[in-house]
């Protein structure tokens, strides 16, 4: 893949200025391991400046009519759209996701800004009698810290920036140090769009996140990332009782019902499990197949897997790219080794390109023990176990036997049975005969250790506000 070269150093957006730092962090293209850019390594003082600017901007921004804030979000969507080719190229190079997937992420983030800008969180009249009127208002929180992971940098930033700004908050956004380029460039393009200090975007190393969560000047942390980090965020944010929304890891189960047609479900199941090379929080990470058609599903899955090219993200024929970073690559390699060493049968191991890049083959494991690490933990890579079950209660019990509760899916013809099974899964989202469908007006969030709170829809907007109940005694 041709590595892009950035013709100028990347900067951060603080208080309306696009600023550089002396200390920088290298960004690596995971498909060839080349350093493609250097980005600012924000100091604590840089963070303080960004928070102070956001705080200063808050009174004026929060008093503007929602319509005006919405209009600026629409303009942000226009700016991204106008520059989507450049941003997509940055995204593909920093993340390693194939061209079509990078384009889809860009389109999705544009769609998201527009859709959220059209949503409204109106005040509600709870009572209006002769003697009493009660009004429920939603008031912005203040300064929001948005912390984003590396798997969907543009989308997951949009999920935070759009609702936070629409509801009248100001923002400090931190992309992952692994994938800061598209977000920083978007910030540069949007530099003069918002009043200064309303939207700040900063990049940094491992200290920056903890500084943000502990910062006294922040009123909320909207965090997407792993469960382990989410727990640290919650602990650190508790010092000044910051509001938190935590969108965390998952170990989603897909349950294939006894009446499913293996040929029909296999393509959907494959992408449910392997989308983004297994690096999606809601990828199906355990596939429970009824014993009566287990062998057939396994065989069809392998046949389908053979048709998917793993390789250079810029090649239009590529279906799956590399893992995004070395740490994740080493983790998944170690898990595959452990799975092999345990004696589990590897039913399929695909091909990867020779040479550099964090490539891992599509790996399908044949019915490993339920208590193996592969089944119990979130691999976040292209290795998936197919698991055999005998009856429905057993499948539901095994699907729910996890600390995670993000999402799940059910596949089969009998929609009543599928709905019944879906309603018994302890997760925030369940799909029937599809997967990973997200919409700006459908609340999304995790049960158990997959998170706290939701994003999207009216509840997603409300999460960026405090409620205020005003009671008026008329007489
Ligand atoms: P991560 O938790 O390592 O990092 C996420 C972000 O937090 C990054 O920006 C990182 O720099 C920052 N960070 C790291 N340590 C921090 C700390 N102590 N305090 C504050 N911030 C800190 O996660 P990741 O490896 O980037 O992403 C993969 C994980 O994210 C997976 O577990 C995946 O399931 C999860 N995820 C969840 C969702 C969801 O919506 N539920 C979506 C995408 C990814």
Please tell me about this protein's structure.
With 475 residues, the chain is of the alpha/beta class. The protein has two domains: 12-248 and 450-471, Aldehyde Dehydrogenase, Chain A, domain 1; 252-439, Aldehyde Dehydrogenase, Chain A, domain 2, CATH 3.40.309.10. Helix content is 37%, strand content 23%. The protein has 15 helices and 22 strands. Helix 8 (227-237) links the parallel strand 10 (220-224) and strand 11. Helix 4 runs parallel beside helix 5. The mean pLDDT is 97. The structure holds nicotinamide-adenine-dinucleotide (NAD). Residues 147-151, 156, 174, 176-177, 209-210, 213, 224-226, 229, 232-233, 247-250, 281, 378, 380, 406, 446, 451 line the site of nicotinamide-adenine-dinucleotide (NAD).
Keywords, separated by commas or semicolons:
6-stranded mixed beta sheet; 7-stranded mixed beta sheet; Aldehyde Dehydrogenase, Chain A, domain 1; alpha/beta; Aldehyde Dehydrogenase, Chain A, domain 2; globular; 37% helix; 2 domains; binds nicotinamide-adenine-dinucleotide; 23% strand; 15 helices; 475 residues
Shape: globular
> Strand order within the widest sheet?
16-17-18-13-12-19-20
Mean pLDDT: 97
The percentage of residues in β strands lies in 15-25%
Q: Compute the CA-based radius of gyration.
A: 23 Å
Low-confidence stretches: none
CATH architecture assignment name of the largest domain = 3-Layer(aba) Sandwich
CATH superfamily of the largest domain: Aldehyde Dehydrogenase, Chain A, domain 1
Number of domains: 2
| Distinct ligand kinds | nicotinamide-adenine-dinucleotide
Distinct helical segment count: 15
Q: What CATH first level of the largest domain would be assigned?
A: Alpha Beta
> How much helix, percentage-wise, in residues?
25-40%
Question: Count of DSSP E strands?
Answer: 22
Q: Calculate the terminal CA-CA distance, rounded to whole Å.
A: 74 Å
The structure class reads alpha/beta
According to CATH, the fold-level topology of the largest domain is Aldehyde Dehydrogenase, Chain A, domain 1
Main sheet record: 7 strands, mixed
